[in-house]
Amino acid sequence: MRREHKIRVWRCSAFVGLFLCFLLGLGVGAHAQNANDILRKAAAAYENSNGISASFTMFTRSAGQNAGESFEGTIQMKGDKFTLVTPEALTWFNGTTQWTYVERNDEVNVTNPTGEELQFTNPALLLNSYKKGFTAAYKGESTAPNGKATYDVELTPKKKGDIVKVELQIEKYSNFPARITVTSKNGVSSTIQISQLKTGINQPDRFFVFNEGDYPDVEVIDLR
Question: Is residue 139 part of a domain?
Fold first, then answer.
């Protein structure tokens, strides 16, 4: 897989992790009571969702540059499993093994992410890496790009790292996120904007596993 493809897949998977981390309400030790209440309701919404499907647009922009990039994608999640579809790649993760198919290269990379890679490729373990890692603050109310009324919550890391802050817009009535923005210390700001989210999408476990029979001509590269 080319390096630029890896970066994009990792970046999007990182947002999957942050998205799941937020939904489960496990990554934040919020001090503000309002933020605490909002996150608890979000956690309950995900736990009762019976699996979700979401369409999103991801925007990335660097500080001092007018130009940026964007792409659309879809994701289905159940527990710590996910299937992610973007223009660059299809990614399946069953909680242990990840398969990333890049059509342009006609290859599938198989990995069991370890070490620092986990925070980019494994949402479940990302939860642990961010556990107690943020302070949450309630910032008020606003209107999301989808027109829904939202609560605004800002997460600030307790220790210095690549992430400077995470900004969340959380729908007031569904308790699901409408927009998540992550600002990095290198000045790059990335936003994932949820356009549609459905609950009750209880996919079988095999849905989160790469089926080699569906891609008989691809080269499978086992990097485990």
Answer: yes
